Request: fold
Amino acid sequence: MSYFNYQQADLYCESKKLINLVQEIPTPFYVYSQNGLIANFEKIDAAFSSLPHTICFALKANSNLSLLRLLAQRGCGADVVSGGELYLALKAGFPPEKIVFAGVGKRDDEIKFAIETGIAALNVESPQELEVVNQLASLVGKKVNIALRVNPDVDVHGHPYISTGSAFNKFGIDWEVVPEIYAEALKTKPMLNMMGIHTHIGSMIFNMEYYQATARRLKTLVENLRQMGAPIEHIDIGGGLGINYQQPLAMMVDGVLAPEVPSPEPQGLVDMIRPIFEPLQCEIFFEPGRSIVANTGALITQVLFAKQTRDKQFFSVDTGMHQLIRPALYGAYHEVVPLKQHAEKFIKADIVGPICESTDVLAKDRMLPAIKRGEYLAIMTAGAYGFSLASNYNGHPLPAEILVNGSQHQVIRHRQGYDDLLRHMA
Ligand code: LLP
Reply:
């Protein structure tokens, strides 16, 4: 269900008319639906209710403290990949026993921070990392929960930049050698509480059979590890549930509603893996990012100029790849809709940002109602990997973030000013 909808000609986030918001808050800014966020989390959590489980929101998708607090208050856990994300997760109120920490390159200070915090699991990605974690745990004087990150060699046939579970990827330990590494650690590394396995096969997964294939591989692994006497208490299946970026709300292309590509249901995922995991009696960790936050956010922008070149119609807007890099980096599709619909005829155009790079195109060859300078647009489904990948490139201050609850809104991150561009510089 979308928490962004048109009522007559106006785009709303929940009960907030967005055209009213731009009178008050200068563009560009991100706007999020509080009830959308909560509903997405609760739907996933409910789908997993037949298994002992913890849902750990992947902070990399969006780490705004106000959004994190809403999730933490509802029993969600956190998946972090740096000391900074661990710090944010703790500040947001996620309990350490619901925090997992992954990543191929953790610095010693980050590992120590995780050990001192006493998190649910440090997901370790190499034999050398195990060695270092064991030494650091001795130094800190505290045992640490470890899950080995397994590379199951399952190809999800997705975008190569966001696929992680194949043997040629940098992530995890080849599944074939996991038992011997595990056995070695059990024997020789007393500060490691070897208690779980972790994997993450990629992002934007639509075919639940990839999860099933991974679950089968992990099950065999857990059985082998248990035969060796390893007490495997939890299996972390990573995140990656795909979502639909083609919103039906909008896109009246020449008066026709765009067809909706449905997002996979979390229940479909659980139905695939439950029969495999149930007999193992492990706690299942799931680390969704995108499927919790993507469709709860939009990036609001103003049209600066319309330009017709020999070949093309361009509309340049006041946001771009510095604030939403997904189209430039992955060729990702985001719906672009006007805050106020009008009856202009549709034309084919590119929506481009102000950045001095030819990849700074937010929407390519899109059918749009002829839009004019000063109009406002919403770039949809931008809640995940939007703000979190934003930068100050080309000297642009970071945009504000606004949270809508019903007809109320609050600023949950102030926009930067020019003075922020000087911060921390000598
Ligand atoms: N767990 C681990 C270990 C991950 O590496 C990721 C994502 C997740 C969980 C969450 O995956 P999700 O449920 O959000 O698909 N910037 C890209 C996505 C990169 C994903 C990286 N890892 C994009 O905008 O599409």
In short: Residues 34-290 form a domain with the TIM Barrel fold (CATH 3.20.20.10). Residues 58, 60-61, 79, 102, 162, 200, 203, 238-241, 287-291, 326, 330, 384-385 surround LLP (CB under 6 Å).
